[in-house]
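Project standup — Tuesday

K.O.: blocked on the structure for the chain from last sprint. Re-posting the sequence here as requested.
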Amino acid sequence: MISTRLQGSVAILTIDMPGRTMNALGADFAGHFVPAFEAAVADANITGIVITSGKPSFIAGADLAQMAGLAASGVTPADALAHIAVFGDVFRRIETCGKPVVAAATGTALGGGLELMLACHYRIAADAPAARFGLPEVKLGLLPGAGGTQRVPRLIGLAASIPLLTQGTELTAAAAQKAGLIHEVVAAEQLIDAALRALADGRVKAVAAWDEKGFRLPGGDAYTAANQNTLMAANAGLHAATRGNYPAPLAIMRCIYEGSKLPMDKALKLEQKHFVTLVQGRVAQNMIRTLFFAKQAADKLVRRPAGVPASKVNKLGILGSGFMGAGIAQVSALAGIDVVLLDREQAIAEKGRAGIAQALEADVQKGRLAADKRDAALARIVAAGSYEAFADCDLVIEAVIEDFGIKAIVTKAAEAAMGKEAIFASNTSALPINDLAKVSLRPQNFIGLHFFSPVPKMALVEVIVGKDTTPETLARALDYIRQIRKTPIVVNDGYGFYTTRCVDAYVREGMRLLLDGVDPVLIENAGTALGMPVGPLSLGDEVGLDVMHHITHFFRGKEQGAWADDRHQRVNALMDRLSGERRFGRKTGAGFYAYPAGAAKHLDRAAIAAFAPPADVQPSSGQIRERLLYAQLVEAARCWADGVATEAGEIDLGAVLAWAFPTWLGGPAAAIDDIGMTAFVARCDTLCSELGPRFSLPQTFRDAAASGFRFHS
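H.V.: unblocked you, prediction finished:
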């Protein structure tokens, strides 16, 4: 794991964890690193030490499985503190060992990896284009617990450190050097030579600047007027942004402010104390489980049927060159797949291809895409007006209007031209795959691939398995999703599947609140206070109220029992009215919001009052938040009870990636677990009696709750 070789009087320690593609800081790190490091320190013939990596990256960060374990039952705060203190002690020993130490990063150094570099007296990075340097712990509800919140301000000043630490900004090697975190960036093949040269030239002092007498913080201490103003503004901004839901950014601010006034050793203990509080809290554990473990499992295709040979899509057919079809074509071409973009007329397909060209050019202009990659991707896309172009496609994805009749026509025409082994997928957001597959001559090769808009930016693909979909078809579809670097969740068929049902529940509850006389401003503010990126009315406008109306029209045939309450019918009537007035949202410049040319959108209070006048008495923000949250949780519970969404990790991950469910809650399954099954069922019963049967839970779920079931162990 740690190897040592001598280069003259310099010891080069190489970290190379067996069985891993990237190094990570785990419980066994100190046990391997410390003996090798102390041996080098104790050897009188060694005058300097270089720490590097045997992998293309340096260190990716801490082992998050162990971070999750720090909140396990029986682990006390003292236990957690002892665990994290090990890393802090090792890093502190590096900078106080009395010999000059150089970090030579072969590539990415994130989290604990960068903290190790910061503890070294001199830092050099290889000029690797994909390498990133940063402290992204805040994105998982944590803070850097091995000195990051203390060494960064002491290196670059309080003001410059705040955005890096509270936003988890990741920098290229050049940007990290410019920020003052790294001393040199050199060609990869010169990395070790540069480290040896820095030691030989006497540029590396064997003491950290903050351990020298008379050290002053760059830019002044926390009491200077400029820093006081910066700290106050940052605190206010973080309070507004986190809404009290995310404790990590504010804990980081406390570490920066309070730690800057303490000697380094006391400051490090302060940081560790705040880290333990966070890591044992529900927010961090929810975020780690969903954003790391659930996503990692999905990206590794854990739902892929075993025994099916790996496959690759060489040529893809896209039916429909509109916004969704063009987006799928774009990401597929960028992944190296040849694409046939087909529409009812060649000219329409050509227009779709031209739109892709404009999107790719925009990415080039913004520096997100190299010009040669743009040209190569565009060259892979061919516009077509005849189904015969699908003859040698491995996969055809239908992305036409949400209409059974039209989808049936194009399905038959496409299958008539496709090879017998090719897969046909529908990019429907709500129509059952089993019903769509009825017209297919080979339903075993039929599957749903629900992409999200805009496709180039949205990571998720909801894979819908029909009753006749074979394991081979599912495996091949998942292989394609990995090929285009998207994240899949796998659900079973049912109206609206999983994500559409839950999005509809959130938007619909916002409309119910309107019809109950709640001020629309209160509704929208409650949605964002909950942690949603936008309120339900704004989301309805963005999705398109015509799309919501179409979903409502389809769902009406499914509305029985809990769905058939009076408020539900009133929402349907509201959707009919909005559709009749062509208030479709942003796309028509009118919905719940008004969209004046050249000005910011705003709630159209006059229009809203015409169909939903405000009541004299308004509910509290907490009551509104609860309704918006429980509408989503109940629908997720129904999807589980219906056998549509069966895996807890995917229930949570799908919610976060599809409709930006609040990450601090982890996801619907995690949120229900945290509320407690018994308490959740009881509260739903109360809401049901107060507001109607839409909050009722299926008997299957109630039985599971009574038996002690939890989504997550």
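K.O.: great, moving the ticket to review. Residues 499-706 form a domain with the N-(1-d-carboxylethyl)-l-norvaline Dehydrogenase; domain 2 fold (CATH 1.10.1040.50). The chain has three domains: 2-280, 315-492, 499-706.
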